[in-house]
Specification:
The protein is α/β, with parallel strands linked by helices. The protein is built from 13 helices and 22 strands. 31% of the residues lie in helices and 27% in strands. α3 links the parallel β5 and β6. The chain is globular, with a radius of gyration of 21 Å. The structure holds shikimate-3-phosphate (S3P).
C-alpha cells in the first residue's frame, strides 16, 4: 500500500457536533462532515426533534433550537445501528417535557441500555426499556432533572456523555466518575460550545442548567477508520502509507502505541489542534510484528480497534493475549466471538476467553469465505486479513462498512493496486 490518504471524519466527534449544534442556541457550521450511516442517524434524530440541518457536500449548517426549542417527535426515532445516537439522544430527552420512543436495527436492539436508563432515572426521568433485560426500544418520559453524583461501574463515553447532556439541563451539580478515562470528545466540545465543564482525571463536573452557544466545528479524520489502513500497511510487504489530518486525541491513540510495541514502523507528525482535538499525520511502513499482552486501560484507548488488532496479532510472531475486553461482546456484534470465528476460517489459531482472545501468531493465513456479522469494523478488519492471506477471500455482508466508512473498499483497492473487488 503506497500513497497518501485522508479518511472520513471522526464518527464519534461528528455525533457530538451534530447534537451540541442542534440543541445550542444559534447557528453551528460543520466542516469536513462525512455522511456515514451512523452520523446520518443522528442528523435524522435531531431533525425529528425540530432542528433544521442542511447538508451540502462536506458542509453542514445547523440552526440550533436551544433546550426549550426541542419539539416532541411525530414518530419513533430510528437510531439505526448507532449506539451513540441512542444513548446520547436519551440523555437529551431525559429532561424534555414529553415522551419519545427510540428504536434501532436488530444489532442495536441487542445492546444493553440499563447503563443509561439507570443514571438518567436517578436524575428524575422515567424510562422504559421495552426489550428483554433492559434493551431497546426505549420510551423516554422526560421530566425536570436534578444533578446527581454518578460512579460508573464501566468506563463508557456514551454513558458519560448521556449523563452530561442531561446534566446541562438539570438543576445543580452533576458529577460523573469513571473507573478509567474513556474518550473525552464531549468534554472538549462542550467547552467549544461555551459550556463550563470541570475535568479532573476520571471525573467530570457540570453545573446546570446551562445553555450552549452555536459555533463552527471542523471535523478531523477518524483514527478508528485509519486504523484498518495503518495495520494493512504494516502487514503488506513494501508498503509506505501516510494518513493525513487524522485525529490524535490521546484517549483514542491506543492502537498506535500497541502497534509500535509489536514492532510496527510508525511515525507521527502532530499538527496542533482543530476544534479542541489534536490532529496530525501518521506514516506507516511494513515491518515484522511480534505478539504482545494487552488489557485494561491500554485496551480502552484502542477499544474500537480490537478487530484489526486481532488481524495484526494473527500475523505476528508469537502469542498475543488480549484480556479485560468483555465490553466487546456488546458492541455492534459480539466482537470477541466474531473475530475468533472468522480468524479460524482463515487458518489462525485462536483461543476464546470470556473477556478476550489468545491468538497464536505466525500462521500463514489462507483465503476463505467470511461473514461480517453485520458489523462495520469486523467487515473492514476481515478485508485487511484477506489482503494478506494467500488466495481469495470473500467477505459476505460487507456493505455494512457504510456505517462509518462508505468507500472503504474502493480506498483499499486504490492503495493496493487493484487487489479488492466490490461485488
Ligand atoms: C463511543 C464510545 C465507545 C466506542 C463507540 C463510540 C462514543 O463506546 O466503543 O464506538 O462515540 O462515545 P463506550 O460508550 O463503551 O465507551
Amino acid at each position: 500500500l503506497i500513497g497518501s490518504v485522508g479518511v472520513p471524519a471522526d464518527k464519534s466527534i461528528a455525533h457530538r457536533a451534530i447534537i451540541l449544534g442542534s440543541f445550542a442556541k444559534g447557528e453551528t457550521r460543520l466542516r469536513n462532515f462525512f455522511p456515514g450511516a451512523d452520523n446520518l442517524a443522528t442528523v435524522e434524530a435531531c431533525r425529528m426533534l425540530g432542528v433544521e440541518i442542511g447538508l451540502e457536500g462536506s458542509e453542514g449548517r445547523i440552526r440550533g433550537v436551544g433546550w426549550e426549542g426541542i419539539g416532541e417527535p411525530a414518530g419513533v426515532i430510528d437510531c439505526g445501528n448507532s449506539g451513540t445516537t441512542m444513548r446520547l439522544i436519551a440523555g437529551v430527552l431525559a429532561a424534555r417535557p414529553f415522551s419519545a420512543r427510540l428504536d434501532g436495527d436488530s444489532s442495536l436492539r441487542r445492546r444493553p441500555m440499563a447503563r443509561v436508563v439507570e443514571p438518567l432515572s436517578r436524575m428524575g426521568a422515567r424510562i422504559e426499556a421495552l426489550g428483554e433485560g433492559g434493551r431497546p426500544p426505549l420510551v423516554i418520559h422526560g421530566a425536570p432533572l436534578r444533578g446527581c453524583h454518578h460512579e460508573l461501574k464501566i468506563a463508557s463515553a456514551q454513558v458519560k456523555s448521556a449523563i452530561l447532556l442531561a446534566g446541562l439541563q438539570a438543576k445543580g451539580l452533576t458529577v460523573v466518575e469513571e473507573p478509567a478515562k474513556s474518550r473525552d470528545h464531549t468534554e472538549r466540545m462542550l467547552s467549544a460550545f461555551g459550556a463550563r465543564v470541570a475535568v479532573e482525571g476520571r471525573k467530570v463536573e457540570i453545573f446546570g442548567p446551562q445553555e450552549l452557544e452555536g459555533t463552527e466545528v471542523e471535523l478531523v479524520g477518524d483514527l478508528s477508520s485509519a486504523a484498518f489502513l495503518i495495520v494493512a500497511a504494516a502487514l503488506v510487504p513494501g508498503s509506505d502509507l501516510r494518513v493525513e489530518r487524522v485525529g490524535l486525541n490521546p484517549t483514542r491513540t491506543g492502537l498506535l502505541d500497541l502497534l509500535a510495541e509489536m514492532g510496527g514502523d510508525l511515525s507521527l507528525v502532530r499538527q496542533g489542534e482543530v476544534a479542541g482535538e489534536p490532529v496530525g499525520m501518521v506514516e506507516v511502513r511494513s515491518s515484522e510484528l511480534k505478539g504482545i499482552e494487552v488489557g485494561g486501560e491500554r485496551l480502552l484507548r484502542a477499544i474500537d480497534e480490537f478487530p484489526i488488532l486481532c488481524v495484526a496479532a494473527s500475523l505476528a510472531e508469537g502469542d498475543t493475549r488480549i484480556t479485560g475486553a468483555g465490553e466487546l461482546r456488546v458492541k455492534e456484534s459480539d466482537r470477541i466471538a466474531a473475530m475468533a470465528c472468522e480468524l479460524r476460517k482463515l487458518g489462525a489459531r485462536v483461543e476464546e476467553l470470556s473477556d478476550g482472545l489468545v491468538i497464536r501468531g505466525g500462521e500463514r493465513l489462507r483465503g476463505a469465505r467470511l461473514e461480517s456479522h453485520g458489523d462495520h469494523r469486523i467487515a473492514m478488519a476481515l478485508a485487511v486479513a484477506g489482503l494478506v492471506a494467500r488466495g481469495e477471500t470473500e467477505v459476505e455482508g460487507a456493505e455494512v462498512v457504510a456505517v462509518s466508512f462508505p468507500g472503504f473498499f474502493e480506498c483499499l483497492n486504490l492503495l493496493s493496486g487493484g487487489a479488492v473487488e466490490v461485488a
